[in-house]
Specification:
The structure is a single chain. With about 70 residues, this protein is mostly beta strands. Helices cover about 0% and strands about 55% of the residues. The chain has no helices and 8 strands. The strands form 2 sheets. A 4-stranded antiparallel β-sheet has the order 1-8-6-3, with no helix packed on it. Strands 5-4-2-7 form a 4-stranded antiparallel β-sheet, with no helix packed on it. The chain is globular. It starts with a strand and ends with a strand.
């Protein structure tokens, strides 16, 4: 079963840390997002493998936009 990771607020992706196919642990950083002039890590809520990264560095994202999928 896959777990979707969505943005908690509008912002901009400033760093993609993990790539598709890489293993992640629960609470491990996947992306870094800038929102309200602050850098915020986006972490995986579950351990697994990155199935999809739906954003790229420099992309603006809306609240609740799909960022990545971990399975």
């Amino acid at each position: 079963m896959s777990c979707e990771i969505r943005s908690s607020m509008p912002g901009k992706i400033i760093q993609v840390i993990k790539n598709v196919g890489e293993k992640v642990l629960e609470s491990e950083e996947i992306l870094v997002m800038e929102a309200m002039k602050m850098e915020m890590p986006v972490v995986s809520p579950v351990a697994g493998i990155i199935k999809e990264i739906k954003v790229a560095e420099g992309k603006s994202v809306a609240k609740d936009e799909l960022l990545a999928t971990v399975g």
